[in-house]
Write a structure and sequence with these properties.
Helix content is 43%, strand content 12%. The two termini are 33 Å apart. By secondary structure, it is α/β, with parallel strands linked by helices. It has one domain: Alpha-Beta Barrel (TIM Barrel), CATH 3.20.20.70. Bound molecules: iron/sulfur cluster.
């Protein structure tokens, strides 16, 4: 099995059955070998600096109803909130003082947030923080809207494709949501010039190895600059309540596979990983991740943005815990990088 890792490291590609074999062997010692190789590749490219992104969860309203998501519109137990522009700017100011140079505005598909409002918010952040990157994670919008946000100063956009298999997409989403539209949006974002991120939940209900291999093949052809992977974690108020959580070892194997495929990619060690295991964030980094996204949202909104059960949102996962994060990283031989951390292909640096 080690030869598959060696080939992936040197050629950045495997045939589908090679990926399947690695995924199906994640419970064995090959995971350590894959992680070691991925980590070496990440350190050779980025050193031991881990980029930080300040996450601001600007709204938990959503018009969609994804069956796995705690803030889906059918969930009547959610206390909804929407941050004002001034509140968002205040969080950016706080984050900037702490050293953050990327702000990630994330939210549900909130119909009350008009394109013009988002555009103006991006414009205000861009004007006040010309040295910072602005990442949006606000779901599906029109091409025109994406273009307006980009021209107002947004640099990056995160939109997980969730699954590259239409039948699996239909199992995870209500029929009014469209697999094709999601894929079209991803293409549009990239064409406009955003550093584009996509990814999946690992172990989502109904997911098979074959599905994951298709996700890998999709990501291989789409070539996103950012790849987000977290284990699926059930949420009690969703139709998938009680389903098992995703496998942490398969998540780590996939992080390593993507690092070996894409040495330059920006790959976060996600909150979901840190939620599922106390040392999940460190293990993600040791599997080749090079980004963490501490939460800059106001404390009183964090609990309301409960995408899944027990989402980690306090202590080290908050900006106030930045010092703690630094200590945590130091124990595994890494440090916080306060650089802006844009995507840069190796041949351009
Ligand atoms: S996953 Fe995103 S689009 Fe789907 S319901 Fe949750 S917030 Fe809305």
């Amino acid at each position: 099995m080690e030869h598959l890792v060696d080939i992936l490291r040197s050629e950045h590609h495997l045939p589908p059955e090679g990926y399947a074999a690695l995924i199906d062997s994640a419970a064995g010692s090959i995971l350590d070998y894959a992680m070691q190789n991925a980590r070496e590749v990440a350190v050779a490219r980025f050193g031991n600096g881990i980029f930080i992104r300040g996450l601001i969860e600007i709204t938990n309203y959503c018009r969609n109803d994804c069956y796995y998501c705690g803030i889906r519109r059918s969930n009547r137990h959610v206390e909804r909130y929407r941050m004002s522009r001034e509140q968002i700017l205040a969080r950016c100011r706080m984050g900037h003082k702490l050293g953050f140079r990327t702000f990630v505005l994330q939210g549900g598909e909130d119909a009350a947030l008009s394109d013009a409002w988002i555009e103006e918010t991006v414009h205000d952040i861009r004007t006040e923080f010309p040295d910072c990157a602005i990442t949006l994670s606000l779901g599906e919008r029109t091409r025109e809207a994406y273009l307006r946000f980009y021209n107002a100063g947004a640099n990056r956009y995160l939109l997980r494709h969730e699954t590259a298999t239409p039948e699996h997409y239909a199992l995870l989403h209500p029929s009014f949501m469209s697999f094709e539209h999601r894929m079209q949006n991803l293409r549009e974002l990239k064409e406009i010039g955003y550093q584009t991120g996509t990814g999946i939940m690992v172990g989502s209900p109904g997911q098979t190895t074959e599905h994951i291999v298709r996700d890998i093949m999709f990501i291989e052809s789409f070539r996103p600059q950012m790849i987000g992977l977290g284990p699926y974690i059930p949420q009690d108020d969703t139709p998938f309540a009680g389903q098992p959580a995703g496998d942490i070892r398969i998540t780590l194997m996939l992080l390593s596979i993507f690092r070996l495929m894409f040495p330059d990619a920006l790959i976060p060690s996600t909150t979901a990983l840190a939620t599922l295991a106390p040392d999940g964030r460190e293990r993600g980094i040791l599997a080749g991740a090079n980004v963490v996204m501490p939460n800059l949202s106001p404390e009183d909104t964090r609990a309301k943005y409960a995408l899944y059960n027990d989402k980690k949102a306090t202590g080290l996962e908050s900006a106030e815990g930045l010092r703690g994060l630094e200590t945590q990283l130091e124990t595994i031989g890494y440090r916080i990088s306060f650089e802006r951390g844009d995507y840069a292909p190796s041949d351009s640096i």
